[in-house]
Amino acid sequence: MEDHHFPRNLALLCSYYSSIAEVCRKLDVNRQQFNKYLNGQSRPSRHNMRRVCDFFGVTESEMLLEPGRFQELVALRRRPMEAAVGADPLRHLEILYQRSSPLDRYVGYYFRYFYSFGYAGQIIKSLGVIYEKDGRYYWKNFEMMRRRTTGARTTVSKYMGAVLMISERIYVLEYEALLQKSITQMTLYPSYHTRVDQMLGVQTGGPVRRGRRPGASRVLLEYLGRRVDVRKALAQADIYPPEDPQIPPGVRRLIENEIPAGAYVLEAEEP
Fold this sequence. Notes:
9 strands; alpha+beta
């Protein structure tokens, strides 16, 4: 993402209005100053950037995309939905997909860590992947449980779902694909480091095979890369006691489900 893309992307958004004057009037910004944004002579302050992004319905990171990709994104969001899609109950998911930002940099494999909903005090380490197909982003996750004595698998759970990025948050909505009796929703902080390393968030769901009480937990995704030895990574997927070497101490601290004094809801740690 480059700053010099901003003027061209801003000009594209303005082209959907009758004039620059109309945009300035609705934004309540000085026309002379706004022209400097369009000419690349100056960049909006953080406050004004937020106002501009909110007005046009985009994010700051999207405003800095390469103009070709940005034009595709804007065209997709402004494209009227087909009548058949609009009449279908899935139109709500279609609306969310049209609002979603590109997730290219997050494509790849992850270890997922969280305290189990069904086995008190145990941490699940599973293998997940974000992948792209036809411009949409999807999620697969595999959970394994093994006998400690032999290492033989006793339980396998496969989750599949959709991935969206809206308003600087990543949402993963997944269902348990084998029994089809459980839905989990993760909300994650995006990673804006030079390379993706960890993403923190909160998820809601419940145990698949016992009980029906819903719950919430902190969750951490540890990025492994776009290509991994899947068989080797799956060999590490299991349920572990917190002190097990397979659970890094830093990860264990970030997924502890404690609500501090003065707080009333479970929130993810700041990244």
